[in-house]
Amino acid sequence: MASTERQQNNRKVENQQEIIHAAAICFMRHGLEKTTIDDIARELNATKGRVYHYFRSKNDIFFAIHRQAMRFCFDAVQPILKQNIPADEALMRMATAHGHVMMDTLPYQRSIRLGVDIYLRGSTTEAEREVLMELIALRNEYEGLYRAVMRQGQSEGTLSVPDEALAGRALMGALNGLVDWYRVRPDQTQAERSRIAQTLASTIINGLRPKPTPAARS
Amino acid sequence: MASTERQQNNRKVENQQEIIHAAAICFMRHGLEKTTIDDIARELNATKGRVYHYFRSKNDIFFAIHRQAMRFCFDAVQPILKQNIPADEALMRMATAHGHVMMDTLPYQRSIRLGVDIYLRGSTTEAEREVLMELIALRNEYEGLYRAVMRQGQSEGTLSVPDEALAGRALMGALNGLVDWYRVRPDQTQAERSRIAQTLASTIINGLRPKPTPAARS
DNA sequence: ATGTAGGCATACTACTGAGTATGATGTTTT
DNA sequence: AAAACATCATACTCAGTAGTATGCCTACAT
Fold first, then answer.
1. What pLDDT does B117 receive?
2. How many CB pairs under 8 A join A and B?
3. pLDDT at A215
4. Confidence band, pLDDT 50/70/90 cuts, at residue B65
5. Which of A66, A180, B6, B28 could form a disulfide with B107 if both were Cys (CB 3.0 to 4.6 A apart)?
6. Which CATH architecture has domain A1-55?
7. What is the rounded CA–CA span in Å between residue B141 and residue B148?
8. Which nucleotide's C1' atom has the smallest distance to the CA of B52?
9. CA pair distance A178, A195, nearest whole angstrom
10. Res. A213: pLDDT tops 60
11. What does pLDDT average to over chain B?
């Protein structure tokens, strides 16, 4: 029956997600190479058999994590793009949202740091290279969203961005750096997270605002 | 003879540095785990025997790279601290210098990204944990230099830094992000590098300057 | 010239960990 | 109910790699 088939599919996807999540946690803790499939299985209270039933290889798991991580980012930022607000405000909201995503989906985001470039050189099969290129393209597209808003702010006059590529790198660097030092603490309130995200975002974006008295210099 | 002994010591240190450098290049390309000792030896046009003659283990090599990377950073920044200049200017020079170090010593800096935390959990022996703690302390000390200058700027009035810990993270994140995307190109001029370092540094630090008209708001 | 020690290559060992083969158990289909 | 299938556990294989054992060779000391 069709509904049964769909239920089975749901179940399958859920199990895959569960494995991905466990893997992300392991990768966050010990890095990609040092975590074994057995580690992931242990995190699931299961054995290798279960993992290999849903994924062909460790690389496939990493790719799935990466895709998921990018989806988290897009989902957080895209609604803001549809709002009709000044570019500086949009950029501020996007950056804040990105910071939140970094903290909320820490295992995923941390797992993929530096992973792509390293994997790219090492991966043997043609299929893997293709997937990697696709993931890199996704990331470029994502960063492109920020650069587009910066360009818009430049033409609007709400932002002053002489080099939007570099400004984008700076913004991403400051926010992505979260995965290096941020640690989830159970007693931490949502307000505290918001403060972190907003402070990081505004620190960069304040540096991109037009000088209030440009004619007064020298 | 003493002079001979010193020469031998020099030679030994040089050989160690050569191995460290080759290892850093390999680590940059393929990551820590994926590079084998044989890879490092091949980069040296040598064999494992040479590597193990100077280092007890792969971890020891990583530790040496890390120490060297931190030394590069300290050496670039400490002279600036001795100059008698306003804190905002000092911070700007320090950040720019840090950016230069990231580009100039890319293999070292890239090798140690995320490496420490991952190694910390995994390392078994007590001695290794001690070395790692020492390296983490070094890094904290280094970042402390920036925070100290920020505090000074705050009291001087040349900077406005409500949360110097977060501001420090933002600054380090934006600059350290260089190792993720910067690639050495032979045709690239020194001027181009300077532009990158200065743009990144000023983007952050401009966001930390006091508002010119704080009384005029709303 | 000859002993001696550092500098390294070669040839191992021992182990880890990715991926596979197989089968046991439950669940859905007919 | 029994056939077919999905979901896993168990028990392997085998390749790759960190680290070691050994010995040659060269340079320096005496």
1. 67
2. 125
3. 52
4. very high
5. B28
6. Orthogonal Bundle (1.10)
7. 10
8. D19
9. 13
10. no
11. 91
Tell me if chain A has a CB within 8 Å of the CB of B180.
yes
Is A11 an interface residue toward B (CB < 8 Å)? no
Min Cα separation B51/chain A (Å): 22
- Beta carbons of B118 and A30 less than 8 Å apart: yes
- pLDDT value, residue A214: 46
**Arithmetic mean of pLDDT, A124-147:** 93
Q: Which two tokens stand for residue A122?
A: 């090492």
User: CATH number for the A57-210 domain, one of 1.10.357.10, 3.40.640.10, 2.60.200.30, 2.70.150.10?
Assistant: 1.10.357.10
Q: In terms of CA atoms, which chain A residue is nearest residue B27?
A: A118
Q: What pLDDT is recorded for position B211?
A: 75
DSSP per residue over A125-181, as a string? Answer: SHHHHHHHHHHHHHHHHHHHHHHHHHHHHHHHTS---S-HHHHHHHHHHHHHTHHHH
8 A C-beta contact, residue A173 and residue B177? yes
Q: Which nucleotide is closest, CA of A58 to its C1'?
A: C18
Residue pair A90/A77 in contact by the 8 Å Cβ criterion: no
pLDDT above 90: residue A96: yes
Q: Choose among B30, B199, B212: nearest Cβ to A121.
A: B30
pLDDT for B216 equals 46
pLDDT at B208: 84
Say whether pLDDT at A218 is over 50.
Answer: no
B57-211: CATH homologous superfamily? Tetracycline Repressor, domain 2 (1.10.357.10)
Lowest mean pLDDT among A137-141, B107-111, B126-130: B126-130
Query: If you search the block for the tokens 């959990």, which residue do you land on?
Result: B121
CA atoms within 13 A on the CB side of B46: 16
Alpha-carbon distance of B124 to B134, in angstroms, equals 16
Which pLDDT score, from 0 to 100, does residue B3 have?
55
Q: Is the CB of B36 under 7 A from strand D?
A: yes
With pLDDT > 90 as the criterion, what percentage of chain B qualifies? 78
pLDDT of residue A199: 97
Distance separating alpha carbons of residues B146 and B20, to the nearest angstrom: 28
Is B139 an 8 Å CB contact of chain A? no
Whether A209 contacts A88, CB under 8 Å: yes
On the 0-12 / 13-18 / 19+ scale of CB atoms within 10 A, B93 is buried
Of A33, A199, A206, the CB nearest to B163: A199
